[in-house]
Amino acid sequence: MALFMLPPVGGEGKTIRKTYGTFRNDLIRMQTCPTRLDVESENIMQLNRRTVLQTMAALGADRLLRAAEGPEKARRIDVHHHLFPPTYSAAIVTLGQPPSPKWTPAISLEEMDKSGISLSVLSLSPPNIIFPDAAVARRLSREVNDYGAKMVRDYPNRFGLFVVLPLPDVDASLKEIEYGLDTLKADGIGLMTSYGDKWLGDAAFAPVWEELNRRKSVVYTHPHSADCCVGLKTSVGPGTIEWATDTTRTIASLLFTGAAARYPDIRWIFSHGGGTMPFLLSRFQVDEKNRKDRDKVLPRGLMFELKKFYYDTAQANHPGALAALLKIVTPAQMLFGTDYPYRTGAEVIDGLAAQGFAAKDLLAIERENALRLLPGLKG
Questions:
Q1: What are the pLDDT digits (tens) for 86-124?
Q2: Most exposed residue of 136, 190, 322, 353, measured as fewest CB within 10 angstroms of its CB?
Q3: pLDDT value, residue 96
């Protein structure tokens, strides 16, 4: 009798079939020599069971089981999935920005189905609504948010929404918070990590944080280029290096201005595993130790605040990034994110599988943490 439905022949299937084949041959040999069963059977069973499990772990048990069982039920929730409304895509070209990727809601759904993603929370990618003309920024914010809300209505249980704000315009942003959360019933707010020369801990944004703290809102953040890093003379774009550091700087801004402690009911999500913050942790700790105002800005300590934040897995699903992040938080603070259309679900799925998470932790990262943080989702 077959022990498992094995994966198709080819690549991983060949390896796991070979392992099971060896196991089967040993069983047949034991049956033909019953006098040796008392010793050899126990040894072989232990050895081969260990070999099978090690092989499955090395190849990524999640992928092997998916291959063996056939198409899976979509379960994942992607909190880092971008949308590109037509009016927004047209507007950014007028600023001299590169054109948006080819995208439609149908293209998003195709990728989601391919990757077993039941629901994606939509947000805007850089350059976002950062326009020199404040009136244009206000108009585009409303248009983007209405477009995203229509997608949520048109495709029930497939999309959620983080509404964009026209920061640094504080008054307009407060109006858009009311419209986005009360009228559109969005799941949270989607922000950039910096606006011009200001990061999110800047005192200029205090009225926005007071309102979001009052509402106990979820705030998702995405990096882009601050004023300091625009127009760099380099062959390596800012998305490769500077953006991850902009996330780190905005985390530092929230921590060391006291904003994170002052507005404790805002639930912050940081993209890309927190950027470079996990690798620079000791520098943060030394800064905390040397600050005369540390009891004021970090009354419960640096690590308390870092452990409260949420971090998505987009472009942070390789061994180094995951190992560093897991020294700071448990899987309970990690969220499945893809960065689609710039990256795919397959990359994240494979990276998480290779990390060898326990099944309950993998389920938490891929789905349950998002449902706990964003209870309005129904994917």
A1: 999 999 888 888 888 899 999 999 999 999 999 999 999
A2: 136
A3: 81
User: What is residue 246's DSSP assignment?
Assistant: H
- Per-domain residue ranges for the chain? 12-69, 76-373
Distance, in Å, from the CA atom of 164 to the CA atom of 140, rounded to the nearest integer, reads 9
Identify which of 39, 41, 37 has the alpha carbon closest to the alpha carbon of residue 23: 41
Do residues 116 and 75 make contact, with C-beta atoms less than 8 angstroms apart? yes
Strand partners, 218: 267
Residue 16 is encoded by which pair of tokens? Answer: 């796991």
Question: What kind of fold does domain 76-373 have according to CATH?
Answer: TIM Barrel (3.20.20)
Does the pTM surpass 0.85? The reply is no
Among 72-81, 197-206, 222-231, 367-376, the minimum mean pLDDT is found in 222-231
- The DSSP result for 34-97, as a single string, is GGGIIIIIHHHHHHHHHHHHHHHHHH-HHHHHHHHH-SPPP-EEEEEEE---HHHHHHHHHTTP
**Residues 118, 157 contacting (CB under 8 angstroms):** yes
Distance CA 140, CA 171 (A): 16
Which tokens in the block code for residue 219?
């705030």
Task: Kindly tell me the burial class for residue 63, based on how many C-beta atoms sit within 10 Å of its own C-beta (0-12, 13-18, 19 or more).
Answer: middle
Of residues 254 and 55, more confidence is placed in 254
Per 3-state DSSP, the chain is made up of helix, strand and coil in percentages (nearest 5) of 55, 10, 35
